[in-house]
Amino acid sequence: MTFDLPHPDFRSALAAQPVIAVVRAPSIPDAPALCEALAAGGIAWTELTYSTPGVGAHLRAGAAAGHRLGAGTVLTAAQAREAVDAGVAFLVTPGVRPEVAEVAHEAGVPVVLGALTPTEVAMALDLGTAAVKIFPARAFGPGYFKDLRGPYPGLPLVASGGVNAANAAEFLAQGALAVCAGTEVVPPEVVAAGNWDEITRRARAFVAAVESASK
Questions:
Q1: Which of 36, 91, 160, 215 is least buried, going by the fewest C-beta atoms within 10 A?
Q2: Residue 133 is among the residues annotated as catalytic for this protein
Q3: What Pfam families does this protein's entry cite (predicted)?
Q4: Which of 133, 184, 198, 211 is catalytic?
Q5: Which neighbouring-strand residues pair with 12?
Q6: Whole-angstrom Cα distance, residue 179 to residue 209?
Q7: DSSP 3-state of 91
Q8: Annotation says 146 is catalytic
Q9: CA–CA gap between residue 171 and residue 143 (Å, rounded)
Q10: Domains, the chain
Q11: What does pTM read for this prediction?
Q12: What is the pLDDT of residues 30-89, one digit of tens each?
């Protein structure tokens, strides 16, 4: 079984560099510098979430600098439009959000819809998701990804929630297209302090651990 999903180039690029840094911070002093720090550590994809105050301005600044920057925790059409207008490369939702998918399709921007159950996965597919984010991944573990690939073989899945350097490689081995790195790589206090060297160090350590476990 194959799935005719939009944005194959997005999935190919994500598979080549399968770690997304998900940033939830009370403030971001310099979004382009944050993205650069992550890229220097080997993480090319950054997701800034709508749980951060004033994230629209940060999305605009980061996207203008040419980074692979996405908007996460997108819950409404208004948030989706703001992010698209900011120039983001992709949108991510925590659950199945038809209105967000509609805005994404109109703009030609990849959307990764969140799901957990097989029924929610099917709903996300019906809405034309570019990939399906399984959240919270920690609650069910890597084996759940192998289970989902039974009824949904070849489906591009992204593991989010509770993924760390110790288990990321196992999620990938069990069928995840990519994994999301959270506070282990981008602790809110480190981001807010603008400690970019520490962010690079953490990103490098995460990527190295994943690559080592994958061999």
A1: 215
A2: yes
A3: Aldolase
A4: 133
A5: none
A6: 13
A7: strand
A8: no
A9: 8
A10: 8-190 (3.20.20.70)
A11: 0.96
A12: 999 999 999 999 999 999 999 999 999 999 999 999 999 999 999 999 999 999 999 999
Single-letter residue type at 197: D
Q: Rounded distance, CA 75 to CA 80, Å?
A: 8
pLDDT tens figures, 147-157: 999 999 999 99
Distance in angstroms (rounded) separating the CA atoms of residues 103 and 63: 18
What is the phi-psi region of residue 123: left when phi exceeds 0, alpha when psi lies from -120 to 50, beta otherwise?
alpha
Among 36, 47, 82, 170, which one carries the catalytic annotation?
Answer: 47
Q: pLDDT of 78-117, one tens digit each?
A: 999 999 999 999 999 999 999 999 999 999 999 999 999 9
Task: Answer whether 176's CB lies under 8 Å from 189's CB.
Answer: no
Q: Are 104 and 91 in contact (CB under 8 A)?
A: yes
Q: Are 44 and 90 in contact (CB under 8 A)?
A: no
Helix (H) or strand (E) holding 180: strand 176-181
Instruction: Output helix, strand, coil percentages for the chain, rounded to the nearest 5.
Output: 45, 15, 35
Pick from 102, 87, 110: nearest CA to 20: 110
Q: Any idea which residue has 């105050």 for tokens? A: 53
CB 131 within 8 A of CB 112: yes
